[in-house]
Design brief:
Elements lengths: L1 E3 L6 H11 L6 E3 L10 H14 L4 E3 L16 H5 L2 H11 L5 E4 L2 E4 L20 H8 L1 E2 L6 E4 L6 E3 L1 H11 L3 E4 L8 E2 L4 E3 L11 E4 L13 E4 L1
Parallel strand pairs: 1-2, 2-3, 5-9, 6-8, 9-11
Antiparallel strand pairs: 1-12, 4-5, 7-8, 10-11, 12-13
Length: about 230
């Protein structure tokens, strides 16, 4: 299973990922944020939708905060602000139906932070604009102690600490969280159980993906292959 971070209009990187990794036996999980910031947002999203339509059992497109512009306005939003009213409504109706998480073996993959729900099945019941939806799409993690740490005054994002991470991972009985969304986050956090990747040239960070080979034992995120694209 291949995990892809924010791509933000980076059509070239997604074309390369599909060419190199869309093969029999592989599944590719995109962690959200397909538009804005980059130069080819519409082309990037259209490309991924077409690939998903052709390969529904191999491609997973998750929802990030940039798929929620209709719910919470943000900036920059060059893609959304460039659309006609009809285009805006069409794309909103598509991306707001994207799933919020993928769970496989000992891994949870989503955009931001873990939602405070009773069990993993409850994720399917999360409603747009709810507190839990905001946690998944907008939440940031900090290495600080504590659970909910408040709203970051610079980004406006909800912040969550290490106690929150370990509580939720124990509740869900999973070992690794793979996420994106937070450019200031270290690659590995929380005893190497939280991995944050980015796959867009819109960031100064290296474009990276994570590969999980389930033929091998995977206990921490360090057991994943982190590959530069």
């Amino acid at each position: 299973m291949i995990f892809v971070g924010d791509t933000h209009g980076d059509l070239e990187v997604n074309q390369k990922i599909i060419k190199d990794y869309l093969k029999p036996g592989n599944k590719i999980v995109f962690l959200g944020d397909y538009v804005d910031r980059g130069h080819h947002s519409k082309e990037n999203l259209d490309f991924l939708l077409e690939i998903k339509n052709r390969n529904p059992e191999q491609i997973y497109l998750l929802q990030g905060n940039h798929e929620g512009h209709h719910i919470f306005k943000f900036s920059p939003a060059d893609f959304w602000e460039s659309l006609t009213k009809e285009e805006y409504e069409k794309y909103c109706s598509i991306v707001e139906k994207f799933p919020l998480a993928v769970v496989t073996n000992n891994i949870i993959a989503l955009h931001g932070v873990l939602p405070d729900v009773k069990n993993l099945k409850e994720i399917n019941k999360i409603k747009l604009e709810s507190k839990e939806w905001q946690q998944i799409t907008w939440g940031d993690f900090s290495e600080e102690k504590g659970e909910y740490l408040g709203i970051d005054p610079f980004t406006g994002r909800p912040q969550f600490g290490k106690d929150y991470f370990f509580k939720l991972m124990e509740r869900f009985n999973k070992k690794i969280l793979i996420r994106s969304h937070q450019p200031t986050s270290p690659l590995f956090m929380f005893d190497n159980r939280c991995l944050t990747i980015f796959t867009s040239s819109a960031y100064t960070r290296e474009r990276t993906i994570a590969i999980a080979d389930f033929k091998k034992e995977i206990k921490t995120a360090k057991d994943l292959e982190i590959k530069r694209i």
